[in-house]
Automatic annotation (TrEMBL):
The chain crosses the membrane at residues 115-136, 148-168. It comes from the Eukaryota. PANTHER family: CORA FAMILY METAL ION TRANSPORTER (EUROFUNG) (PTHR46494:SF1). This is Magnesium transporter. GO terms for molecular function: cobalt ion binding; cobalt ion transmembrane transporter activity; magnesium ion binding; magnesium ion transmembrane transporter activity. Residues 65-99 form a coiled coil. Pfam families: CorA.
Length: 221
């Protein structure tokens, strides 16, 4: 299959269009096979009105019905063969499409990895530029800000952001599932009590389980 070979070597947008076109053709062939099957089944089950004439004998009618049934069976078998062939081609085409999308995803992942590497390379320079651009007294003399005040504000804003994120989440280990907004807002107060309760549950010794003794009766023969 030349298209499959092209997809294995390189995946382009044109290949995706061709694969979707082939999928559309296979769906169209499925509708055609269904229409032919319905027509053949109708011919097989419906008696031939021309054979009801008095010109034909009963033996001729019987022979005609047998031939018609035989040909209809042959056509139905051929339709089944074509349908199975179409299903096999459809599965093969789906495999090729999955392969094409997998190649595209791998290529995108490689591109994102390169971008990540570039970001990591320039991260120290960005950090140094941010540090030396701070308006603090230790770096830029004459300013009112200090490193201590900057650290205090940074820690406060970080804690506030963390508090808001945890409060707005409905599924987290900091509060119970289905908790109301008030309980979620009070998670810093309830969290120590929850930790202590879990520690007590783990440290508490469990009572030994009683053996499940069942009395067995033996019947003497």
């Amino acid at each position: 299959m030349p298209l499959e070979s092209d997809v294995l070597t390189e995946s382009r947008v044109e290949h995706t269009r061709d694969l979707h076109s082939l999928q559309a053709y296979l769906l169209h062939y499925e509708s055609l096979l269904h229409s032919v099957r319905v027509s053949v089944s109708f011919i097989e089950k419906t008696p031939n009105p021309a054979m009801e004439s008095e010109v034909f004998f009963d033996e001729q009618r019987k022979t005609s019905d047998e031939l018609m049934k035989k040909e209809c069976d042959n056509l139905l078998n051929e339709i089944d063969r074509l349908q199975k062939r179409r299903e096999m081609l459809s599965k093969h085409l789906k495999n090729v499409m999955d392969l094409a999308f997998a190649n595209v995803n791998i290529r995108d992942s490689a591109s994102m990895r390169q971008v990540t590497y570039l970001t990591m390379i320039f991260l120290p320079a960005s950090l140094i530029a941010s540090v030396f651009g701070m308006n603090v007294r230790e770096i830029n003399p004459g300013t009112l800000g200090t490193t201590v005040r900057y650290t205090q504000i940074t820690i406060a804003l970080t804690a506030l952001t963390f508090y808001v994120v945890v409060t707005l989440q409905t599924h987290t280990s900091f509060h119970d599932r289905g908790a109301t907004m008030c309980k979620r807002a009070a998670w810093p107060i309830l969290l120590p009590w929850k930790i202590l309760r879990n520690m007590e549950t783990v440290a508490r010794p469990h009572p030994p389980r009683k053996a499940n003794l069942r009395r067995t009766y033996f019947r003497r023969d």
